[in-house]
Amino acid sequence: MAQSEFSLDHEISWFVLPSYWAKIIVGLISCMCFANSYDGDFVFDDSEAIINNKDLRTETPLGDLWHHDFWGGKLSSNTSHKSYRPLTVLTFRINYLFAGGFHPVGFHVINIILHCAISVLMVDVFSILLGGLQYSSKGRRLNLAPKASLLATSLFAVHPVHTECVAGVVGRADLLCALFFLLSFLGYCKEGNHFSILWVLASVLLGAIAMLCKEQGITVLGLNAVFDALVINKLNILELIQKVLHKGKSLENVGLFKKGLLFRITLLLSGGATMLCMRWRIMGTGPPAFTEVDNPASFADSLFVRAINYNYYYSLNAWLLLCPWWLCFDWSMGCIPLIKSVSDWRIIALAALWFCLIGLICQALCSQDSHKRRILTLGLGFLIIPFLPASNLFFRVGFVVAERVIYLPSIGYCMLLTYGFSLLSKQAKKKKMLAAAVLGILFINVLRCVIRSNQWRSEEQLFRSALSVCPLNAKVHYNVGKNLADKGNQTAAIKYYREAVRLNPKYVHAMNNLGNILKERNELQEAEGLLSLAVQIQPDFAAAWMNLGIVQNSLRRFEEAEQSYWTAIKHRKKYPDCYYNLGRLYADLNRHIDALNAWRNATVLKPEHSLAWNNMIILLDNTGNLAQAEAVGREALELIPNDHSLMFSLANVLGKSQKYKESEALFLKAIKANPNAASYHGNLAVLYHRWGNLDLAKKHYEVSLKLDPAAPGTKENYSLLKRKLEQLQKKGDV
């Protein structure tokens, strides 16, 4: 066996480096590929998984992480995606604590470090996969394929398809899963030197940790079993099948009891079954519920259509590994139209995939060269087994194609590519030219990684980069529109939202956002039509019901608006913004008690809801309930001590209550926080005017008029003050 391993490296025209130098170089190259993403923003799914995830905040008990999904929702909820990754969320929480808030640099740096660490580990992993598991007389593992392992690791470290995992903070789930996946595999390899149940159990434990980072981690147990059979026990799969089918052959004769193989496989199976049972119990309400737009093929009525499209998705994943040029943050919502007929030319892609796979499988089973059988089988194992959870074979997944899920399968691809390169080198006369070509591929991949990770630094670049890759994807247009709207460019945002609705006429979120913009532009009729259609398509869409209520309120259809608000609250019990808008409706109708109750509900659900507090203070002030207004204002400022609008409202109340000194202090504090608010200076001037501090009143009237020459009431008050000052001056002259 040692001779054949030597021949693999012998045929490859590549660099020979000591193991530690190989690891240093790989670490540096992998860091170089993605280093420019270190100061990127939180983008795409990062908002939900990190910024809006309450599990990262210190006020959330640590124990809640074990009962919540990846996005911070309860696993028992019917709306949960059931992605159970508590250890990944824990690392986010640690990042948050050390950074002192949501500062993305620390999050990105950890991702880059994780990819570098994984790439360094891959030197050892590939040396085992390509060179076999052999030991010196002193018990040290021998690296029998240093050239091949360095080449395969380099291909892995600089593969552009990894950009989503490294540059997107949410990709940490895949990185942590891969890290513990590889540690589990390497731990199992330790067992290959001297049989020890401890190493098997350690491998199972590391596999469980990998699964708690991302569900894909459990597949390492299957790979460990394949490795045990092929490398530790040197089984010939084809020969094994033939012997089992041959009458009179016992399991012992075919080698299943050899070196304790059956016992170790039983341990792996038991560990895997235990993990799956615990995982199912934690999920609570069964598998997640996805929508048709997430994975249209899985909703097809025809088994043929489902099978054809699943296989086409596999071919697309294979193409991304082979040619990672067209990369996209999202492949759903019409990006890949369904294949509904065998006349569709895309059938060629899945035919090509299966032609290659069947050819490789036949070679892996039937080759007389044990070394070739082992490399091809392990390569296919690493390519296929970690991909199984994303294959739709066992359960429906919530995506069509996702670059992050091929982080681990790319190990198998790099292994097969390296073996193919060794075969080409064997036949090639100009080996240096072939090596130069591989170096060129590596260089191009590094450049692609740098370009792609730069696109992941901001949502604008990320979303726009997808327009050319998936122009039929409604979600791409929606996200471009949302990004433009957030930056205040409503006109451009409308264009992209309309295109998103055109591409997917049932895209309720695009309708809701477009309706919101049209509402702000006072195009109320079209806004109402879009929002009405959104709630008709999705009757439990609480945000659309609330926005519809706002539009109906603007159209002075108050009864319909009230009904829409209550429908929104029915579908989302804890909806402070909806209570706030309901309070505004009641205030317009002079239903003051109902308005105060609605705003109070908003502040109970969201104590930092400044607008609700402010409206309560202003309404109580306007209705002459100064004592109650003062009490509410003080309560609000205790909860939100730095809110200048609350200081301003309470200062007005205190001024009317003739508590001039305290009112003055609050006005000055509000002005310090927001010095360009004309009303703040104007009302402080009124306070000084009442108080008899006429010079200060004059000063702040003038500042207010300078900031806003048309400030209501300020001109009149200033004129009154000037007349009074003139009268006082005349009296003084007399």
From TrEMBL:
Enzyme class: transferase
Swiss-Prot/TrEMBL GO biological process terms: endoplasmic reticulum unfolded protein response
GO molecular function, one term: dolichyl-phosphate-mannose-protein mannosyltransferase activity
Pathway: Protein modification; protein glycosylation
TPR repeat ranges, renumbered to this chain: 474-507, 508-541, 576-609, 678-711
Membrane spanning stretches: 20-38, 112-133, 169-188, 194-213, 220-241, 261-278, 316-339, 345-366, 378-399, 405-424, 433-451
Localisation per UniProt entry: Endoplasmic reticulum; Membrane
EC number: 2.4.1.109
Sorted UniProt keywords: Endoplasmic reticulum, Membrane, Repeat, TPR repeat, Transferase, Transmembrane, Transmembrane helix
Membrane topology term: Multi-pass membrane protein
Gene Ontology cellular-component terms listed: endoplasmic reticulum; membrane
Family per similarity comment: Belongs to the TMTC family.
Annotated protein name in UniProt: dolichyl-phosphate-mannose--protein mannosyltransferase
